[in-house]
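Thread: FE2/S2 (inorganic) cluster complex, take 2
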Amino acid sequence: MNLSKQQTFSRRSFLKTSALASGGMLISFNLFTACKSDVKPPVDISQLNFNDFNAFIKISDEGKVTIFSPNPEIGQGVKTSMPMLIAEELDVPWEDVYVQQAVLDTENYTRQLAGGSQSIRLGWEPLRQTGATAKQMLVNAAAAKWGISPSECKASQGIITNPKGETLGYGDVVKEAALLDVPGEVTLKDPKDFTIVGKNTSNVDIDKIITGKPLFGLDYKEEGMVYASVLRPPAFGQILESFDDTAARALSGVIDVIVIGEKARIHLEGEKKNWTAQLSKSDKVVVIAKTTWDAIKGKKAIKAVWKNDSELESTESHDKILLDLLNGEKFDTRRKDGNVKKAFANADKILERVYESPFLPHNCMEPMNFFANITPEKVHLVGPIQSPEDAAKVVSDMLDRKLEDIHIEMTRIGGGFGRRLYGDFIYETAEIANKIKKPVKMVSTREDDMTTGIYRPAIKYKIAASIKDGKLTGYHLKEAAVNINMYGLIPNFFPAAALENYQVDTANYKSNITTGAWRAPYTNFLASAEQSFFDELAELLEVDRVQMHLDLLENVKSNPEPNIEYSPERLQGVIKLVVDKSNWGKTGPDVYQGFSVYYCHNTHVAEVADITMENGNPVIKKVTCAVDCGIVVNPLGALNQVRGGIIDGIGHSMYGELTFNNGVPQSNNFNSFQLIRMGQTPPEIDVHFVENDIAPTGLGEPTLPPVGAAVANAIYKATGKRLTKQPYINNMDLEKVVG
Amino acid sequence: MATFNLKINNKKHTVEADADTPLLWVLRDHIDLVGTKYGCGIGQCGACTVHVDGNAMRSCLLPVSQAEDMSITTIEGLSEDGNHPVQQAWKEIDVPQCGYCQSGQIMTASAFLNQNSNPTNSEIRDAMHGNICRCASYNSIEKAVKVAADKIS
Ligand code: FES
Ligand code: FES
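Output below.
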């Protein structure tokens, strides 16, 4: 969708203005009904029924603007970039804007979710319309004051000017503006006139972060608050049988020891079971204490007996089960073009490879925690959560409280990566607070966090290609996954539509280990598998790796197919850009390059990794990345996201692995789980954005998936070894360094 | 429970705590200095880094009973208004993503630059290797340490 021309919108129904008693004007708007993930922009605002408001702009008498940013901030920068869109169209100096995290409006709550890199894509139009509408009302008020037509006025940088050159600040007209009707139509800026969007803008919380101010859930405190530490089953498949809390109760800092689980089961077994409720049904022992340390110590002193409730699973058995599934016949066919079977039967050559990935914990830097205080009037919950709406529903169901009673405040989030889409830690905290009738903070230790997670499940792929007369004739992708298979759009990603014969099949195994979304779900490994496979395929076909992709995309362009997700033109665009910027094929003999390209989360990305060999070990020197995410709202934040995704992708494909033995996770802290560190980070990550006027898409996830293959393909060039199983370090005869 | 006298950010504090309580939790829960973060509790991540007599230390590994008579500086006391050269460099480069690890990163970097104000790239990488940033803001951290070094020298 091209937004270079100006557009008009009607938004009468989703904005409401009011005058504030304290002076100034409040503009309330509803963003999230317009931003549901299944709504494709442009959103027809007039079709939406807005009777509730969950985001606000406040303009004071002095013309200062406060924007209440509604989406949870998990480090992806939306707390900065979403208000930038409003401020752009409102046309105020960014320095006059103050951004505050909005509270979840529980009376009429709607979509408030950080996940899937969708915030910016979906907020692009509604947020700009909101800003433009507010500006129009201020202009209308000024025009009325001067007795002229609004079209004769100009507004910019918070100042309205009439033809005589007289000026009024926004603050001078807020009182009058608040009383005006919301205009039916406003005009959005031409992107070339943007003054805030596209400019480097610092994180709005930067001053608080660098001075250590309370910002995160773990920092939140209330008078009289106690601390809780939860003892959960040590193995998936086990439940609590009995426990002895004598030693714990003897500790001076321990206030009480309680058991929870009953309320969670009400929800888990009920009809309203929500997808965010990934909880063990076991009873759990909770130590209530005066401080965090007292709670942690108290928990260690509990002697619990656990019994087996279902199978205790191990990585070895997962490996076998998933491989059996891949080699078996029981698949769901997710997309089928042409006749793959026939293509394979007629082939002169077939390339078939299996790619394997392990379970991964999220390891958010801030461990799971939440605050709750439950009174007859109100259920007050505060903390880091990516899906507050769903959390409110679940708490309402499990505690049998009216939804209006549930009040969730979101703090800044010390890392999400998908983990905080699930509310298990809120549901536990709510159950604890409901029982002890005191304000309480539940704190998970790192060990709790890593061993009772909602993991990325292990997934294996078998990819096969058929070749006839030196040409690629068929492509068959099979997935065997723990718990849930790839989401519905993925079979329509590249190379769908590039080949006449193409098929995607999936099979799964239900495990009792809790699993869920992890930064770039499915594609985080699928991209590694497919892009490694294409590398090998190009070699077998004796064609240039990059040219093969460009040609396949040319096929897509000449046989346009509505049922694909990616744009062949935009994929070709990023490929050409990365080839140019990385000096592809033109580096010296000591530098080995690996190429990878991928589309996901509406963004197109190509990457080249450069490695050298030092003392027989591959060292990643540089990653060049070309991204097409449409208009870049905040280049500074965007660069952070792109780099973060790439390094995260390198770290987890190289080192990340969580294994299980009899249901017990075999890593529990950073001494047994390797996260990438400074010394393993490529010194240079060279990022290039495709410049265009297309509406922006997200950046939190899409640069992660392709990088694993870029690295594996470079390592192949350097060592002659094809890496197919993650973490790659296990297959490289290298020492696994922790710490 | 015992009583401990601590000197934190040039102020005296008296706390009642078990002798084995890590300084980290004394700072966070007893004294309300929550800028020092909990990440692992076992000395692996650096989120809890403070200065003890000018040296970077992991407050999760330091029992309160051993922290008496030492001069402890936390992120809140690193400067008056966030104007320490390292804080300023962090702001200039816009280092933080989620921000959770950053006070530990800043405390490690500032102690390091105190000892070596003109470091090479590889010295910076070595000095910062012990601090995990799950958001992987490592390239920005490296750059910010260089900027801070320029400001200091
Ligand atoms: S919390 Fe102290 S090093 Fe991680
Ligand atoms: S900024 Fe998120 S962990 Fe470092």
